[in-house]
Design goal:
single chain, alpha+beta, 12 helices, 20 strands, 22% strand, globular
């Protein structure tokens, strides 16, 4: 065995580099933990992971975002944050190894964390200014100091062995490092970082207590215009079919907020201004509660919903008619000579969403929603106030955590998603979905109940048809209709024969338009095509 092989197999030769890598990871942990603590005093969105994650979302091509939603669903934000932490860990590990030989260079490298985080925080749409740099900067400085100290404990120094008699054996001298000092310093750094991170999370939780308390104190008034009772036949008794009303906990959530905003309803305000607004106004939550409230069942659909996808849900909303508010502010739609054709809604997290003014004011139940399924809006779905517009995909209508409405033109301003190659106007396409049987199910031959939902908000569903393999289209039985703004359930008793079969569905809306077979991606204005499932009857 050669000397080189012996060195590689000797655990002592791997110990110091391994501890160097550990030093880098500990310094990164310290930087993030301290940043977490500081962001609790500034604002949660200023933390480096959230800021960098938000910046990454803003700069990610639309096709990649769409792929992430398709692949990870509502876990896309968690996957992004885990990815950022993984990259930071690898970077920190590398800096730890560098610091073994170049102590100051490695420690200075940690400051890059601060530069990137600070730049991301201050360039976010919801940035409040220079204070947003503090979490990243302070965290990076602490992390740099930790690496500098730990690398110092791993620095090689000449050690003198025990003297043999009265003379020293100079040939026995060997370089060594401060093992005891490293263990003490590393343990202290890990414990202090864990404490800082835990304290930061606790303080962040307490920051949202005012918002939580304000939501608990809200009692939604009885609406002046209540929704009609859901028809008895609207919910089919077929196992596996979607519930007609989607519960709040099951309602889909697709947005760019890595941290769900917790807004205090007692301090929340909405400003309405812009072109054609002759009477600008700023409203409080109580102002909206004192207005005439309406209650409506409305189905929402995300533009990222693939054919047969899950990002569609139906809820009972309570709110204020947006058209009435705009009219009181002097707004006229362009069809009646108004100068503004776009309504830009701004969220507290900086999101901008543009809606056609004509659509918002054409008589449909476009709402500033305060309640969802009989309770104040959940935080994840826009508390205290959000927009709901029947017939438009969410990215051009459903602004959550809304704080500002500006009347402008499509020519003058491109909202967030339009800047990323999505269409300016996006009415919801006529779609249908098979809920049961599931793909690759193995039902018994004989009568198999096929069922699902179809939607064409603000037009209504007139007919649903099912096709088995390449056979003729056969009309399904439609459930009772609640309104043209909600989805509609359907069923079809299929006489299944043994073997593999493809079931396909299509819908026809109230205008007579048949759902197109042509497949289209979600970008730029929603997916299209027929949904089908393959099953095997035994």
């Amino acid at each position: 065995m050669t000397d080189a092989t012996r060195k590689l197999r000797n655990p002592r030769n791997w110990l110091r580099p391994s501890l160097g890598a550990l030093s880098g990871v500990l310094s990164g942990f310290a930087a993030l933990a301290v940043a977490e603590l500081v962001s609790a005093g500034v604002r949660p969105q200023a933390g480096p992971v959230i800021a960098v994650g938000g910046a990454a979302i803003d700069r990610t091509p639309a096709a990649v975002k769409d792929w992430a939603i398709r692949s990870f669903g509502t876990n896309d934000k968690l996957v992004l944050q885990l990815g950022i932490l993984t990259v930071l860990s690898v970077f920190a590990l590398a800096l730890g190894l560098v610091a073994l030989r170049y102590r100051r260079t490695g420690a200075a490298g940690v400051l890059v964390f601060g530069v990137v985080g600070a730049a991301a925080a201050t360039t976010r749409p919801d940035s409040t200014g220079w204070a947003d740099t503090l979490p990243s900067v302070v965290g990076a400085v602490i992390g740099s100091c930790v690496l500098f100290v730990l690398a110092g404990r791993l620095a090689l120094t000449e050690t003198t062995p025990r003297a043999i008699g009265r003379e020293e054996d100079d040939s026995a001298r060997s370089p060594g490092w401060d093992r005891r000092g490293f263990i003490i310093a590393a343990t202290a750094a890990a414990a202090a970082s864990a404490g800082a991170g835990a304290l930061g999370r606790a303080l962040k939780g307490s920051r949202g207590q005012e918002a939580i308390a304000s939501r608990k104190d809200i009692v939604l008034p009885t609406p002046a215009s209540p929704a009609l009772a859901v028809p008895k036949g609207a919910q089919l008794r077929i196992p596996g079919i979607s519930a007609f009303t989607t519960s709040n906990k099951d309602f889909y959530r697709v947005d760019t907020a890595l941290v769900v905003p917790k807004v205090d309803a007692t301090t929340w305000q909405l400003r309405i201004h812009g072109r054609g607004v002759t009477r600008p106004v700023t409203l409080s939550f109580d102002d909206l509660l004192r207005r005439e409230l309406v209650e409506r069942d409305i189905t929402l659909t995300c533009v990222s919903n693939e054919v047969g996808g899950p990002y569609v849900g139906n809820a009972r909303w309570i709110g204020v008619r947006l058209a009435d508010l705009l009219a009181e502010c002097g707004v006229r739609p362009p069809s009646r000579g108004g100068p503004a054709d776009q309504l830009v809604a701004r969220s507290v997290d900086g999101m901008t969403i543009g809606s056609p003014v004509d659509d918002v004011m054409d008589g449909r139940d476009a709402l500033l929603a305060l309640g969802m399924n009989g309770e104040p809006l959940p935080f994840a779905h826009g508390f205290p106030v959000r927009m709901v517009v029947p017939g438009l995909y969410g990215y051009v209508s459903a602004c959550k955590w809304i704080r500002d409405i500006e009347l402008t033109t499509f020519a003058a301003y491109d909202p967030y998603w339009v800047k990323r190659d999505w269409a300016r106007r996006a009415p919801i396409k006529t779609q249908s979905r098979i809920d049961t049987p599931k793909p690759f199910a193995r039902p018994k031959a004989g009568t198999v109940m096929v069922g699902g939902v179809a939607w064409a908000q603000h037009r209504g569903i007139d007919k649903v048809e099912v096709r088995v393999d390449d056979g003729p289209w056969q009309e399904a039985r439609l459930a009772a209709e609640d309104s043209r703004d909600t989805w509609r359930q359907w069923s079809f008793p299929w006489q299944a024969t043994k073997g593999s079969h493809t079931l396909t569905v299509r819908a026809t809306d109230r205008t007579g338009a048949v759902q197109t077979e042509k497949r289209a991606r979600t970008i730029p204005d929603g997916a299209s095509g027929w949904h089908s499932v393959v099953v095997t009857a035994d």
